[in-house]
Write a structure and sequence with these properties.
This protein is α/β, with parallel strands linked by helices and 363 residues long. 47% of the residues lie in helices and 13% in strands. The strands form three sheets. Strands 7-6-8-5-9-11 form a six-stranded mixed sheet. The protein has a three-stranded antiparallel sheet with strand order 3-10-4. A two-stranded parallel sheet has the order 1-2.
Length: 363
């Protein structure tokens, strides 16, 4: 009997324990560990920007007004592109001879250039017409209007691309005087004159008057006059000629001259480098060429105003053509342009047709 009571007590205890356990609240789960703070994202890797270190061999020496115009424009371009386009300028002949510059630009030996385009008439006679057409053009503004709005840009750009060169813009300069040791008081005085003159229409006019023209490099102009290799020479506008000392080795200045009343020089870049540039760099270098091209003339004109009185103070004599003589040489020039160059190449014929059409619109 006692054993039964013990068993009964134990059974009741077990039942009570089970009921108690069943009714007890569930234990709270262990607290979750706090998530670690997100790692900061690494900054994106900087894209390496292409840098264009470009070589330009210029036509005149440092310190001359045209050089300063191109150097100032290059400085502005460097700042505008945060150094992505950096143009280094070289003196005439430092890298190669001037007549080799256009092919060298296409090959990437130089990267960007003012092209003394008349020097390349051996490649195509039409280049001589781009450089200048005495007796045809009225002034530089007329040339730029034709270039920008009446087909000039398209014609020249297409031609230069044949040489792997991209046209950016044009520069220009005003009348080139003739610095002489012989008096040029009439057109007859040009008979037998030995004169340094670049190739092109200007040389053709002079040759028609009996002048013997010699196409010497510009940097040899001073020594050629000093040693009487030539009697006379043209090189650039008044300021550039004064800057290299032509007043020291001559007696007369024939200015303004009809042989080269203005000169046009395309500003161009290697086509492969152009194609590799981003659109923003292309836009920047186009503005560089526009700035350099316009200031090329404006800087020179400002310098010319300063130099003009110095010429007479130095003891040189100014000479120039009479209206009748000017009419005569302009007629000679137009005859040369139409008859010699008009059939010389397809490009030359296209230039003449385009310019003639433009001038017909002017009335």
């Amino acid at each position: 009997m006692r054993n039964k009571i013990v068993m009964l007590v134990l059974s009741v205890a077990v039942i009570v324990s089970l009921v108690f356990i069943g009714c007890a609240p569930e234990a709270a789960p262990p607290p979750e560990e706090a998530a670690p703070p997100p790692e900061e994202a690494a900054p994106p890797a900087e894209v390496e920007q292409e840098v264009y270190d470009m070589k330009l061999q210029f036509w005149c020496e440092p310190g001359a007004s045209p050089w300063n115009a191109f150097e100032d424009a290059a400085d502005n371009l460097r700042v505008a592109t945060n150094g992505q386009i950096d143009i280094t300028m070289y003196t005439p002949g430092a890298l190669l001879d001037d007549p080799e510059v256009l092919p060298a630009l296409g090959e990437g030996i130089v990267d960007i250039q003012w092209l003394s385009i008349g020097d390349f008439d051996y490649l195509d006679p039409g280049f001589a017409l781009v450089a200048g057409m005495p007796g045809i053009w009225k002034d530089q503004e007329q040339v730029r209007e034709w270039f920008e709005h009446f087909g000039g840009r398209e014609l020249l750009d297409a031609k230069l691309q044949e040489y792997n060169v991209k046209l950016l813009n044009i520069g220009s300069k005003g009348s080139e005087g003739i610095w002489s040791n012989r008096s040029l008081d009439s057109l007859d005085a040009f008979e037998g004159l030995m004169m340094r003159c670049g190739a092109g229409v200007a040389a053709d006019i002079l040759n028609e008057l009996g002048t013997k023209t010699v196409d010497l490099p510009g940097e040899e102009t001073y020594s050629a006059l000093q040693t009487n290799v030539v009697d006379a020479a043209e090189f650039g506008m008044m300021g550039e000629c004064w800057g290299i000392g032509m007043q020291e080795v001559t007696k007369y200045v024939y200015w303004p001259s009809w042989h080269c009343p203005l000169y046009v020089g395309p500003i161009a870049v290697n086509l492969d480098e152009w194609n590799a540039m981003s659109d923003d760099l292309k836009q920047a270098i186009m503005y560089y060429a526009l700035e350099a091209g316009i200031n090329h003339n404006l800087y020179s004109q400002a310098e010319e105003i300063k130099v003009m009185p110095l010429v007479t103070e130095y003891g040189l004599t100014y000479q120039t053509a009479t209206p009748e003589e000017l009419a005569r040489v302009n007629e000679i020039s137009r005859d040369i342009i139409m008859n010699k160059y008009g059939t010389a190449s397809e490009f030359a014929a296209d230039i003449i047709e385009s310019v003639t059409s433009f001038q017909d619109k002017l009335g």
